[in-house]
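Field guide to reading this record: the first block holds the primary sequence, the second block holds the structure written as discrete tokens, and the final block holds curator observations. Each block starts with its own label. This record concerns SNARE domain, catalogued under organism Arabidopsis suecica.

BLOCK 1 — SEQUENCE
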Amino acid sequence: MSDAFDGYERQYCELSASLSKKCSSAISLDGEQKKQKLSEIKSGLENAEVLIRKMDLEARTLPPNLKSSLLVKLREFKSDLNNFKTEVKRITSGQLNAAARDELLEAGMADTKTASADQRARLMMSTERLGRTTDRVKDSRRTMMETEEIGVSILQDLHGQRQSLLRAHETLHGVDDNIGKSKKILTDMTRRMNKNKWTIGAIIIALIAAIFIILYFKLTK
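BLOCK 2 — STRUCTURE
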């Protein structure tokens, strides 16, 4: 049910009980006191009409399954308001005799008791609904906090993994540098070895040529 409608309903029940008491007390008054009481009652009736219009507008915005039950309540409230208006007219007309006055006083007291009982029952129902709503809000808040904690934990894990990846990237970059340096050293060594091979080859050829020259001169003598 709509929380807004419940709030308007509570206000109307309280106002209805107050109007019932004021109508009962206005019957026994005379003169200026009666006029003042009637003015208060008329002001209360105007406020009651405003509340009924608000409940009507709120009920028509709800889904059909909720709207139908609330419109039934509204019809009861409108009937209750019309009864108050009729009673105010009778009080204003000043045509009540003593018997009718006593009857109205008794009826007013009964209505007051009934309205108070209905009001207490509705207030208890509203309090229970508010309690359930509060529990749902607490559960939602608890779930939200747990979700937030999980999210923070996930972010921390992701941050740690990112740091690990960065360190691994730096390590690989260092390995790449070392490999490049090693490759350069090996290239230089290979170049030197090739150069040394040519040098040794040239020395060997020179030695062989010298040996042949020596042998030639010895044999010719």
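BLOCK 3 — OBSERVATIONS
Helices lie at 3-27, 31-60, 64-93, 98-220.
Confidence is low (pLDDT under 50) at residues 95-99.
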